[in-house]
Amino acid sequence: MSAGSMTVLAPTDAELLQAQADLWRHSLYYLTSMAFKCAVELGIPTAIHNLGGAASVEDLVTALSLPQNKLPFLRRVMRLLVTSGIFASDSRAHEETYRLKPLSWLLVEGVDAEDHTNQKYFVLSTVSKHYVEAALSLADWFKKDLAPPLPSPFEELHGVPLLHPEKTPLLDNDLHNTVLEGVAAHDNLAIGTIMRECHDLFRGVKSLTDCCGGDGTTARAIVKAHPDIKCTVLDLPDVIKNAPADGVINYVGGDMFKSVPPSHAVLLKLVLLHWSDDDCVKILEQCRKAIPSREEGGKVIIIEIVLGPSLGPVMFEAQLLMDMLMMVNTRGRQRDENDWREIFMKAGFSDYKIVKKLGARGVIEVYP
Ligand SMILES: C[S@@+](CC[C@H](N)C(=O)[O-])C[C@H]1O[C@@H](n2cnc3c(N)ncnc32)[C@H](O)[C@@H]1O
């Protein structure tokens, strides 16, 4: 077949004009992220909340002490953020007012509600200069013939890995702290939902190790819902030394690559996405050694994204963007069911079951 006969048919006039609009959208989506960052830095969600849940641009300019001549510019930013689904607007009244949506509610500071975890630092880390520069270097990274284990574009560009307790602060201490706060906010979001949705998951479990359980926030929520479970948190010694001595959770400082405290079940919540497949196999091997046989109820519980289009295009896009986030900035990744199955089998497990969907994530039980 000649090259000429393989040429795509010329688009129609309507298709061409649509293609140009799509070209604008895909080239300029970064401006949505930057407008979003701007709204978070200005504190617009908190201002709307403090103004009773609805505010005009005039109200916002006054509340935020912005110069009056910025008013028409703020209106344009808000118009984009409404169209992007971040705020709601009401134009029935004489002047347009803006309201919070669930997403912008997550960015209000000082809300005292059980299910509220302020996501400000997640936003500020993901749109930080260092992350954006790493993403800008992606094509250069692809062209470089780097020796394995492959550094992420972030590590290759900035010379240090992300989230390394000693090395990342040498690059930028503020970035390191912002990322730590962002990860904690991200990981603690929806713990109440997980407990409500996954009540049965912990039924019959006598003891549980929360592997990489940090300061014990998840473990405390589990014990609150299931007071009979004996809960242990494993994390690095430097993290455990700052954990609250609550007398309920047993905190163990250690290294999951060397051993995991034995228990009926091991929980890995939002851990494996940070690690390569080879490292995941090593971690899972230690988890397998820590639990009894399947007949005795032994299992590893994993709460993570399971990539796939079944939840619809918006959720799938969100999952794929989270995979890009990991690819650009870490050596980790998000995984589809085949990827998960492969690492479970390599780590010596016999079977697994995706027991629940939790938004963009899945809950997987893995059996020895
Ligand atoms: C992304 S957080 C885990 C999130 C947590 N499971 C949650 O759902 O809130 C990663 C945690 O892994 C811990 N960690 C990293 N390397 C570790 C290791 N080798 N052994 C034990 N913990 C480790 C870090 O200190 C950090 O607290």
TrEMBL record:
Similarity remark: Belongs to the class I-like SAM-binding methyltransferase superfamily. Cation-independent O-methyltransferase family. COMT subfamily.
PANTHER family assigned to the protein according to its UniProt record, in alphabetical order: O-METHYLTRANSFERASE (PTHR11746)
Record domain O-methyltransferase dimerisation: where: 24-109
Alphabetic keyword roster: Methyltransferase, S-adenosyl-L-methionine, Transferase
Database matches in Gene3D superfamilies: Vaccinia Virus protein VP39, Winged helix-like DNA-binding domain superfamily/Winged helix DNA-binding domain
Record organism: Urochloa decumbens
Domain O-methyltransferase C-terminal: 138-350
Top-level division of the source organism's lineage: Eukaryota
Keyword Methyltransferase: yes
Gene Ontology terms: biological process: methylation
Annotated protein name in UniProt: O-methyltransferase ZRP4
SUPFAM superfamilies: S-adenosyl-L-methionine-dependent methyltransferases, Winged helix' DNA-binding domain
Annotated Pfam families: Dimerisation, Methyltransf_2
Gene Ontology MF annotations: methyltransferase activity
